[in-house]
Amino acid sequence: MAVSEVRAPNVNRVDCPSRPVLEHVTSRWGVLVLAELRDRPHRFSELRRAIGGVSEKMLAQTLQTLERDGFVDRDAKPVIPPRVDYSLTPMGREVAEQIWTLTRWVEANLDGVFAARETYDKAR
Amino acid sequence: MAVSEVRAPNVNRVDCPSRPVLEHVTSRWGVLVLAELRDRPHRFSELRRAIGGVSEKMLAQTLQTLERDGFVDRDAKPVIPPRVDYSLTPMGREVAEQIWTLTRWVEANLDGVFAARETYDKAR
DNA sequence: TCCGTACCTTACTTCAAGGTGGGTACTTAC
DNA sequence: GTAAGTACCCACCTTGAAGTAAGGTACGGA
Which segments constitute the HTH hxlR-type domain (chains A, B) (predicted)? Predict the structure, then answer.
């Protein structure tokens, strides 16, 4: 074994660097961006129109974070008017697939959640 | 077709009720709680010790939200001192499985993320 | 008698997420 | 000529999420 012990990443550790990464992909807008880019690349304003309620600021911020982490590829063409295409990297495609499954699951099981809430609320 | 059109749930809609649900399961502590409960039921303070950095307040709040949505089952035994066991409902087990896969994926791909960040940061 | 454990709740405070509105630089459509 | 689209960045301010701290209860042990 090596002299310096290399700790395996563990999200349960307060200071584990995997925490922020997980938070980026599960963030409010991160989830929706990844799910949306799953089926095809989008331009900035296309994404903005597709995802209801995102402000330009938050969309730009979210895309930057995801790009920095290596999930999103940004392709800026030096033309006027500006044209920027966002797509998933191979790594991004893997997470997006999982996120997408999760979003579809939630959509499909909404009724179950509502039923649970009714039971819960009636019990008090 | 029926007279009243029933819109299918769509996370991309601002007002779609699936949004909050998705936010609950992908919330900072929600993710970690679900992942932790995946392998076995936990008591409150067990969870608190397992998940680094949660305050009692946030853990209680997170558990309540997940219970109300029907993902977590709360079993409070009327004994002194209080004993409360938290476990996953069948619905909860389905999401937890996905969340768990995601967390493992992130842990396993941390190096890829770091590499991407280095490339990104050096480019400016 | 006071500490410690277990499972919370409430009040107070802080900090970051997010919204708003402005600016840029250029083009096409009205 | 003026408005709108494109893809942002920047500064300001509000809101809500989260942290901190303390209280509450019923007991068991020192």
Answer: 16-114
**Interchain proximity A107–B26, CB inside 8 Å:** no
pLDDT score, position A3 = 53
Measured from the CB, is A80 under 7 Å from any atom of strand C? yes
Residue numbers of chain A with a pLDDT score lower than 50: none
Angle in degrees, 0-180, between the axes of helices A90-108 and B18-25, rounded to the nearest 10: 120
Q: How far is CA A53 from the centre of its chain?
A: 15
Length A96 CA → C30 C1' (Å): 42
pLDDT at position A77 is 87
Does strand D come within 7 Å of the CB of A45?
yes
DSSP A37-65: HTTS-EEHHHHHHHSTT--HHHHHHHHHH
What CA–CA distances, in Å, run from A42 to A39, A93, B48, B116?
A: 9, 14, 41, 21
Could you tell me the CA-to-CA distances from A79 to A34, A72, B97 in Å, in that order?
Answer: 26, 21, 45
Give the strand order in the sheet containing A83-88.
A42-43, A83-88, A72-77
Phi and psi for B42 in degrees, rounded to 5? -135, 150
Query: Domains of chain B (ranges plus CATH)?
Result: 18-122 (1.10.10.10)
- Between residue 28 and residue 57 of chain B, the positions with Cβ below 7 Å from nucleic chain C are 43-46, 56-57
pTM above 0.70, yes or no: yes
Position B81 confidence tier, pLDDT thresholds 50, 70, 90? confident
Predicted confidence (pLDDT) at residue B2 exceeds the cutoff of 70? no
